[in-house]
Amino acid sequence: MTIESLEYLTAKNLTEAWNQAFSDYSITNQKTEAALFRLLQRRGYDPSLSFGGFDGKRLAGFLLNGRGEWLGKPTAYDTGTGTLPEYRGQRIAGRLLEASLIKTREQGLSQYLLEVLTENTKAARIYQKAGFNTCRTLEYYFGKPASIEKTKIPCGFSLQVVAGLHWENIESMWDFIPSWQNNRQSIERDRTSFLFLEARMGESLAGYGIVEPLTGDVPQIAVHPDYRRQGIGSQLLLRISQESKTGSLRVINADAANFGFRLWMKALGMLPAGQQYEMIAVLESAS
Fold first, then answer.
1. How many angstroms separate the CA atoms of 224 and 207, rounded?
2. Are 77 and 180 in contact (CB under 8 A)?
3. What backbone torsions phi and psi does residue 87 show, to the nearest 5 degrees?
4. Are 244 and 143 in contact (CB under 8 A)?
5. What is the rounded distance in angstroms from the CA atom of residue 137 to the CA atom of residue 64?
């Protein structure tokens, strides 16, 4: 087994390996070639920063790294790690992580961010031994919200599709920082795939939502604190549901510590489908 850069790997070979590696995953994660590379583009994938374990010419395992900023610091992000079922137990993932840590340090990145399912205790232990610490627990939701149509529309409310968002106006609405794949940088990398909605009460911006219609993914949705408990969030989610071409929604990486968001989802008939740990390692310079 050799560990090599993925800089010259074909899209076809990577997609085949991805689907085989995640064929028994608890979350349905099968991708077409186009869908996989939309996902990777959004997450800042950098092939020169990524590695594969090769059995001859066959890709047996991979660690796909992205590059960007996280909380103002240059950061590497694990956009996806997988090992084909028949190659598990050979420490491929550990060797890929070692190669990635060396490369990210050489590139002068300050930190390395990733997410791992809480049920994947073996992987979590590998990351902890490599110097990663848990930042927070994230939850994900799948499904179609119930009972939204019954929500009363507040007086003075309007909802409109906009070309983009004024980010400086919406951060004050956040109860938690969006995860890497949901943050401004990720959305801007593939902004044509998203629909942006603004909710207003009169002339005032009361809330907003972002949806990827093709997948039903909702990277961000928030209501200004002054306008909560008036049905605005539910009206945003109703419109988002109508725009989803899948007939359902994917709300990935809500902060599990935000009980208000969880209670809102529960009231709409959506319960957490699972949890992930967000983990980070501080990188020391290779020099």
1. 6
2. yes
3. -110, 5
4. no
5. 22
Q: DSSP letters along 138-175, please?
A: EEEEEE---SGGGSPPPTTEEEEEES---HHHHGGG-S
- Residue whose C-alpha is closest to residue 205's, from 255, 156, 253, 251: 156
Bridge partners (DSSP) of residue 61 are: 53, 83
- Of residues 267 and 286, the one with the higher pLDDT is 267
% pLDDT > 70, the chain: 97
Distance CA 243, CA 140 (A): 20
Half-sphere exposure of residue 202: CA atoms within 13 angstroms, side-chain side: 2
Our separate counts of H helices and E strands in the chain read: 8, 12
Copy the structure tokens of residue 85: 């079922």
Whether residue 196 is predicted with pLDDT greater than 60 in this model: the reply is yes
What's the Cα-to-Cα distance from 221 to each of 176, 189, 286, rounded to whole Å?
11, 19, 39
Phi, psi of 245, rounded to the nearest 5 degrees: -80, -10
CA-to-CA dists, residue 176 to 61, 180, 183, 226, 268, angstroms:
33, 12, 11, 17, 20
Answer whether 0.85 is exceeded by the pTM: yes
* Rounded Cα gap, residues 239 and 196, in angstroms: 11
44: CB partners within 8 A, 6+ apart: 66, 67, 68, 77, 79, 185, 186, 189
Q: What is the mean pLDDT of the chain?
A: 94
**C-alpha R_g of the chain:** 20
- Measured CA angle at 60 (ends 134, 182), to 5 deg: 40
> What is the model's pLDDT at position 29?
78
Domains and CATH numbers, the chain: 2-138+276-282 (3.40.630.30), 146-269 (3.40.630.30)
